[in-house]
Design brief:
single chain, 482 residues, alpha+beta, 7-stranded mixed sheet, 17 helices, 8-stranded mixed sheet
Length: 482
């Protein structure tokens, strides 16, 4: 199957269908504007989506969000829900960086309050927060403490003094998946996790200081504490080497089982475990541990960030007023209740590079967001805007409560580095008023803005299709990267 042989049929201004053919159990739905379709068809993402539609127990359709691009197994930006009775869980539908996600901090500061100190702040963040591939944090966990992190998630970090109990109310799932089972996390994953808690990592992970430059929904923005000129901090990181190793370990287990049981997935990258199987229970237990590690990690990164504001800028807590708006993940498989064809069902929703977008009134949302819907964080990358959106009923009706998670790549990391040769990216960004500190030039080249889709187009499709709604836009100002 090749992308050129898959014909997309237009449903409306924002949706395109891959009709159910061959071994597909359901159609595929791609969210995109007409001008975005050539980029989506240029890689394997539509082929991967058609293969996802062949998995056992899949419900309604396989979905690609407007930031979709090819990934491992599922396209990044892929969403699928599976029946608990005869469906599956697939590591390729979660990804290697389990619970990679975003956390948005709102400050009491206006842009002019720190305009003459932004460079100092970026340097302070870079010096205070461990960044880069294999970076190690100041916390050295004992085996017993690491198991507690894997069981308790962000709650462990709060108990240890890294934040406040109220932070947990502003974190998806309260910062913990209860089915976590540290016994299912292998020795290699545990070893990798011992020294990396509280570290940013590399690649597209970042801490970004920005400011609100446009408000679209004044009432919701005010409820979130957003107004034009308000300084914000966006943190993007995940489960580090521990999560990567959990994925690697279970891919190997499932590939062996697939051969043993003559269970042939539509693609070897889509190996899966039936949801009622012991292997599915083991993977979900280990995946939840990695998700909890990621929530604890972002909780600690928030703590280091607040410390930097206080130490580098000499601000007291009452002066900077930093608080957590929300923390949401975008690489996860979770059991949720959804109304499907008029019936309430428990299903296993895979979100691979896709963000939860629950609407106003949803029982899983804290009281602060019952009237507005869940905050949805859509990060740009260094030179592009980021967006704050809100969850909608349209997302529940169309996408199992899901929306996009970023811009989505259009250039591979290799192609991006080739394109960046001879360019002074630091200088280009500084000329735009964006100050960047990075552990290496290679990472900066891989993550340059041109490597990604136009985030304005991506967000507009999500907004126009009704799977989330625009609240405010953030302008990047100071960024640290691994």
């Amino acid at each position: 199957m090749s992308a050129s042989k898959i014909k997309l049929q237009r449903l409306d201004a924002c949706r395109w269908e891959i009709p159910k053919t061959g071994d597909m159990r359901v159609p595929g739905i791609v969210y995109a504007s007409e001008e975005m379709i050539p980029a989506i068809q240029a890689d394997d993402s539509v082929v991967q989506l058609a293969r996802v539609a062949q998995l056992p127990g899949i419900l309604k359709y396989a979905l690609a969000m407007p930031d979709a691009h090819s990934g491992y197994g599922f396209p990044i930006g892929g969403v699928a829900a599976f029946r608990m009775e005869d469906g599956v869980v697939s590591p390729g539908g979660v990804g290697y960086d389990i619970n990679c996600g975003c956390r948005l901090l709102i400050t009491a500061l206006k842009r002019e309050d720190i305009a003459d100190r932004i460079k100092d702040l970026v340097i302070g963040l870079f010096n205070h927060i461990p960044t880069g591939m294999g970076s190690k944090g100041p916390i050295k966990l004992s085996s017993a403490d690491e198991r507690r992190v894997l069981k308790e998630g962000a709650g462990w970090a709060v108990k240890e003094g890294f934040g406040e109990p109220d932070d947990l109310l502003h974190t998806e799932e309260g910062g913990v998946l209860e089915e976590a089972d540290p016994r299912e996390v292998g020795d290699r994953a545990m070893q990798r996790g011992k020294s990396q808690l509280g570290t940013l990592g590399s690649g597209n992970h970042f801490v970004e200081v920005g400011w609100v430059d446009e408000v679209y929904d004044a009432e919701t923005a005010a409820s979130f504490g957003l107004e034009e000129g308000r300084v914000t901090v966006l943190i993007h990181s995940g489960s580090r080497g521990l999560g990567h190793q959990v994925c690697e370990d279970f891919l190997e287990i499932l590939q062996r089982e697939s051969r043993r049981d003559n269970r042939m997935p539509p693609d070897r990258q889509l190996v899966y475990a039936p949801l009622g199987s012991e292997t599915a229970r083991r993977y979900r237990g280990a995946m939840a541990c990695a998700a909890n590690y990621a929530w604890a990690n972002r909780q600690m990164l928030m703590h280091w960030t607040i410390e930097t504001f206080e130490q580098q800028l000499g601000l007291a807590p009452r002066e900077h007023g930093i608080r957590l708006l929300y923390d949401v993940c975008h690489n996860i498989a979770k059991v949720e209740e959804h109304h499907i064809d008029g019936k309430k069902m428990k299903v296993c929703v895979h979100r691979k590079g896709a963000t939860r977008a629950f609407p106003p009134g949803h029982p899983d949302l804290p009281a602060a967001f019952r009237d507005t819907g869940q905050p949805v964080l859509i990060p740009g990358d260094m030179g592009t805007h980021s967006y704050i959106m809100a969850g909608t009923r349209g997302a529940m009706e169309q996408t199992f409560g899901s929306t996009c998670h970023g811009a989505g790549r259009v250039l591979s990391r290799t192609a991006a580095k080739k394109s960046a040769r001879g360019r002074a990216l630091y200088r280009e960004l500084e000329d735009q008023g964006i100050y960047v500190k990075s552990a290496g030039k290679a990472t900066l080249a891989e993550e340059m803005p041109e490597a990604y889709k136009n985030i304005d187009q991506v967000v507009n499709v999500a907004h126009q299709s009704g799977i989330s709604r625009k609240v405010a836009r953030l302008n990047p100002w100071g960024v640290i990267k691994g």
